[in-house]
Design goal:
The chain is of the alpha+beta class and 101 residues long. The protein is 19% helix and 54% strand. It is globular. 10% of the residues are buried.
């Protein structure tokens, strides 16, 4: 009986943790990279590089994270729902869109 309860508890914890972290693999003309957004930590990584988050727009239908790349470089918009893509802006102009999965 104890084993069953422990397995149920472990499964619940794992699914709750999974919903706190969103990931996707994106591709630009040079390479693939992984994007990771952790809600509880309010952190955003592109591969191992941390980007500063400015805003998060989340509803039941969409999840978009907006921030700044390294060195106050271009701003980005990471779309996790309903579709996956990364957009990069400079001087308020869209410079690049990377498809993601």
């Amino acid at each position: 009986m104890r084993v069953i309860i422990l397995l149920l508890f472990t499964g619940i914890g794992t699914s709750a943790l999974a919903s706190e972290i969103e990931t996707m693999v994106c591709e630009n003309p040079r390479r693939e990279y992984q994007v990771r957004f952790a809600r509880s930590e309010n952190s955003f990584l592109a591969d191992k590089t941390a980007y500063r988050i400015l805003a998060v727009e989340e509803t039941s239908e969409k999840l978009i994270v907006v921030g700044v790349t390294v060195g106050d470089g271009p701003t980005f918009r990471a779309h996790f729902k309903p579709y996956k893509k990364m957009e990069f802006f400079s001087d308020s102009q869209l410079q690049q869109t990377d498809g993601c999965r």
